[in-house]
Amino acid sequence: MPVPIRRLFVALTLCCALVAGSTACGSSEKTTKNDVSAMAAAAATPSPSTSAERQKFAKTRFVANAGLAAGATYQWIVKPWKDGKFKKGAKGRRAALIKAGLAGVFAYNRLKAAQRNAQGDPTLAKALEPLNAGINSLKDLPAKLRKGDGNAAGTYEDLINKVKDAGQSAGAPVKNQVPSASQLTKG
Asked: pLDDT, tens digit, for every residue of 99-145?
């Protein structure tokens, strides 16, 4: 499993700081390489967070990811669907479908991330358990939108509302957060 660059950078910075500090402030005794590497390894080892901290961060991440999914779904799928932009012959249909397809992929990605975040909190995990199959079924909806299936946008809206309700029942209220266009294209 590859290590993120940020972690490597932090570990390298800590090692350099320890080596520089031990040579600048050291006594007249010589320090061996093993002593320096042992000190660096001890300083670079992160301390585990408590289960309460993990649960708090799990809820926070869940709220952020689910909020982005809800905002993208409402802005680029539900609203155009209600305005009739997905109907054949509608003005701006192609652009609306492209945006809806991107929003659908983005919402699916964020909902999967919210699902992973919910695993850190037992209450959230239990509340989202019935929705896992629905979240997995969202993969097929962008294709259904392109074909003009009017129920596809309604399915997105229903599932997002269920995720919001599950978050509310678990003490993690979700509010719509419309992502920027750059966030939408990055996924």
From this structure: 888 888 899 999 999 999 999 888 888 998 888 888 888 887 777 77
Kindly state the tokens that stand for 63: 């709220």
pTM, rounded to two decimals: 0.67
Closest CA to 175 of 53, 74, 79: 74
Tokens at residue 79, please?
A: 């609203």
Instruction: State pLDDT tens for residues 31-70.
Output: 454 554 554 444 444 444 555 555 568 888 999 999 999 9
Contacts 24+ apart (CB under 8 A), 14-18: 14/40, 14/43, 14/44, 15/40, 15/43, 15/44, 18/43
Q: How many C-beta atoms surround the C-beta of residue 142 within 10 A?
A: 21
- Considering Cα of 76, then 79, then 81, then 86, what sign does the dihedral take? negative
